[in-house]
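Appendix B, record 7
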Amino acid sequence: PNTPVSEDCLYMNVVVPRPRPKQAAVMVWIFGGGFYSGTSTLDVYDHRTLVAEENVILVSMQYRV
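Structure tokens (predicted):
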């Protein structure tokens, strides 16, 4: 895998564009996984691209079901 595996897996990511906008939408993103697999840190879910191209602050979280 391209992401470390750990029991310490409950955390939140907040990605803010640079330069920091005066007004921006906040997008909360919860990754899927079908109760089987998934993580918010996979390369395919790289938030930096979305934040760089759109005027959004992106919030995602790592969770366990």
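Remarks on this record: The longest helix spans residues 47-53. The chain has a mean pLDDT of 79.
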